[in-house]
Specification:
alpha/beta; 12 helices; binds guanosine-5'-triphosphate; binds magnesium ion
Length: 315
């Protein structure tokens, strides 16, 4: 397939062409690979992960960030992980309505991916879309993660800057989060300050203490803490200042470049994982064999399928 016409249009900002390219990326791993390699390299795009406590206001905050960034002239994209299997329809509907507000803003493009990787994290398509957006000229590419735990940490590993959203008055909740995403933040947001200013100060003290104790922050970066009210649109520019400060930090220290390399490595692994699963599910098995021999034989046939079809597309 030749995607050059689509790519040319998408590079000029054509939303329809962009959407079609993203569909190719989602549907067809080989196409995804070709689309990515055909797009010009581009330096400087910034991948921002938003994670944290369920219901802390991640989606509302992200929606505000999009508006503020777009107003400043940045082109923003969101790779939204379709939470349909993990969350109630109500939450999803709320997100959809919020995101629709941005549908007509030429500086904002939102795309959801329905599939997830084997371990619950982002799928190959999801990670590939991030770099497609970046190469198409988007400056800020956001991912909002789903849920907690290891899958979340995996998702955040592909981000250059990680924003962890908490709420006022936390103590126990923060402890509960500690094993997961709580430790990986570059920026901590205390959202919903409008509800409990006193409690916000408590969370602030708690976070400052953890930073002083060396529990948070890594590789020379001291995490920033920002208080926001996403509903009242307060503190968003301060949050953007913190995100931009971190961006300059990673550009200056080489962490940006190593993040891109890590994402590329993750992409290769996720693609291999997808090819393996697709083949495993479609190859017929002879049941007469010893179990171990049967599995080995299956693996040989999986490999043979891709080796034999080099250049011809996987059937
Ligand atoms: N008072 C107040 N409510 C907020 C604020 N930000 C978000 N909310 C409300 O909190 C609820 C959850 O907000 P979401 O943005 O859906 O939170 P989320 O973290 O994306 O939720 P999940 O994706 O379900 O984990 C909604 O009812 C929001 O209106 C805020 O700053 N102040
Ligand atoms: Mg959400």
């Amino acid at each position: 397939m030749d995607y050059s016409r689509l790519i040319e249009k998408a590079l000029k900002g054509d939303r329809l062409a962009t959407g079609r390219l993203l569909s190719i990326v989602e549907r067809d791993p080989r196409g995804a690979s070709m689309v990515l390699e055909s797009l010009p390299e581009r330096e400087g795009y910034h991948v921002i992960g938003v994670t944290g406590i369920a219901g802390s206001g991640k989606s509302t905050l992200l929606s505000r960030l999009l508006t503020h960034y777009a107003d400043k002239g940045y082109r923003c994209a969101v790779v939204a992980i379709d939470p349909s299997s993990a969350y109630s329809r109500g939450a999803l509907l709320g997100d959809r309505i919020r995101m629709q507000m941005h549908a007509t803003n030429p500086n904002i493009f939102i795309r959801s991916v329905s599939t997830r990787g084997l371990k619950g994290g982002l799928s190959f398509a999801g990670v590939a879309m991030i770099d497609v957006f970046g190469r198409l000229g988007y400056d800020k590419v956001f991912i909002e993660s789903i849920g907690v735990g290891q899958a979340d940490v995996d998702i955040m590993r592909i981000a250059d800057t990680i924003v962890v959203v908490t709420v006022p008055g936390l103590g126990d909740d923060i402890q509960a989060l500690k094993a997961g995403v709580m430790e990986i933040g570059d920026i901590y947001v205390i959202n919903k300050v409008d509800k409990d200013r006193e409690g916000a100060n408590k969370t602030m003290e708690y976070l400052l203490f953890a930073i002083e104790a060396g529990e948070l922050g890594h590789r020379g970066w001291r995490p920033r803490i920002v208080k926001t009210s996403a509903v009242l649109d307060e503190g968003i520019d301060e949050l953007i200042d913190a995100i931009e400060e971190h961006y300059r930090f990673i550009l200056g220290t080489g962490r940006y470049g190593s993040g891109r390399e890590r994402r590329r490595e993750i992409l290769v692994r996720l693609l291999a994982e997808k090819m393996l699963i697709d083949a495993l599910e479609s190859i017929e098995i002879e049941t007469g064999k010893d179990l171990y021999e049967g599995a080995l034989e299956l693996l040989r046939r999986v490999t043979a399928r891709y080796v034999d079809t080099t250049g011809g597309g996987e059937a």
